[in-house]
Structure formats: structure tokens, C-alpha cells
Design a protein that fits this description.
The chain has one helix at about 15-30, and strands spanning about 1-5, 30-35, 45, 50. By secondary structure, it is of the alpha+beta class. The strands form 2 sheets. The protein has a two-stranded parallel sheet. Strand 3 (about 45) and strand 4 (about 50) form a beta hairpin. The longest helix is centred in the middle third of the chain and has 13 residues, at about 15-30. The N and C termini lie close together (about 10 Å).
Length: about 50
């Protein structure tokens, strides 16, 4: 799974200390984080979303 955001941080309204905690939890669960990216499409393929 990939978390994509157009912002330079996971949640700009969240204080920095909490942001670090969330990034660590996402990494522990194998979630890839892409900051300052724009999601332009989502497509389905066999076995789930892509």
C-alpha cells in the first residue's frame, strides 16, 4: 500500500512529534509514503487495486 499526499508532510495540521509517530507506524506496516506527489489515476488489476 502507498500513502500519497500533495503536502510536504503526512498531516500538516498535526504537530511534528505526532507526525513522526504516524510515519513510524506506517513503516512498520509496510506502507510506502510519498510526500509532495499528485495521484493522477487508480486502476484495478487482478488481485486488487493498483
Amino acid at each position: 500500500m502507498t500513502f500519497v499526499t500533495g503536502d510536504p508532510s503526512i498531516a500538516p495540521e498535526m504537530e511534528h512529534r505526532l507526525s513522526i509517530t504516524y510515519r513510524k507506524a506506517l513503516a512498520e506496516h509496510g506502507v510506502r509514503v510519498l510526500l509532495e506527489h499528485e495521484l493522477v489515476s487508480v486502476s484495478a488489476h487482478e488481485g486488487g487495486a493498483r
